[in-house]
Amino acid sequence: WHRWIYDDYYRSYMLPLEKYGIKIHHDDVQVAWDRIVKKDYVHYTAQFFSAGWPVNFWRIDGMTEEDFEWFEAKYPGWYAKFGAYWENYRDLSLPNNPPSLWVDTGYVYPHRCWSCMVPCLIREDFVVVEVDGELYTYCSELCRWTHKNAFAGEYEGRPTPAMGRFSGKREWETLYHGWDLADAIKDLGFVRNDGKTLIA
Ligand SMILES: [Zn+2]
After folding, report:
1. What is the rounded CA–CA span in Å between residue 151 and residue 145?
2. How far is the CA of 171 from the centre of ligand 1 (A)?
């Protein structure tokens, strides 16, 4: 993670933008690192995407004992926080079980961030704010600022171009609210010609 954030993202992408006059907030790199590594962002993300497999076109396999050991060795303390979730996930991934989201395993489906579209996975960073009379949820203060300020109709006296606005069909939780799961999967195009789903 260190190489990806500091070398790939910061040194080879963000820093070179400085010479074009773009102001780089250098401290944000440390914040990104803390979110991803210290606040378990990667682990919450894996959990979220595994839970959502019924409405996806791929699925994470249940873990083996070897996988559990690998995670605990690489991220000490991982099992205490996420072990029970992945044990349940493994059991429920066996044939004739309902999707794990349909079973009370203690996992709470998170709110979606209206800016980056990733769910709000770090509890202490979660923000709710009203924009044009509607309540929106954000994963972080920066994402709140992006929607509320930077991508508002106008920013610092200049109108925001259409491509910078958050409009249209942005996330399936709203789009498919109240639908039957089978109809949502058909509508998403995840049923093959032979009648099976893409992951069956
Ligand atoms: Zn966000």
Report:
1. 8
2. 13
Positive or negative, the CA dihedral 156, 128, 119, 168 is: negative
SS3 string of the chain? CHHHHHHHHHHHHHHHHHHHCCCCCCHHHHHHHHHHHHCCHHHHHHHHHHHCHHHCCCCCCCCCHHHHHHHHHHCCCHHHHHHHHHHHHHHHCCCCCCCHHHCCCCCCCCCECCCCCCECCCHHHCEEEEECCEEEEECCHHHHHHHHHHCCCEECCEECCHHHCCCCCCCHHHHCCCCCHHHHHHHCCCECCCCCECCC
CA 115–ligand 1 middle distance (angstroms): 5
pLDDT in tens, 50-72: 988 877 788 899 999 999 999 99
CB 137 within 8 A of CB 113: yes
Q: Say how many Å lie between the CA of residue 146 and the centre of ligand 1.
A: 9
**How high is the ipTM of this complex?**
0.99
Q: Which residues surround ligand 1, an ion (CB under 5 A)?
A: 113, 115-116, 139, 143
7: amino acid identity, one letter = D
Distance from Cα 139 to the centre of ligand 1, integer Å: 4
- Cα–Cα distance between 63 and 76 in angstroms, integer? 17
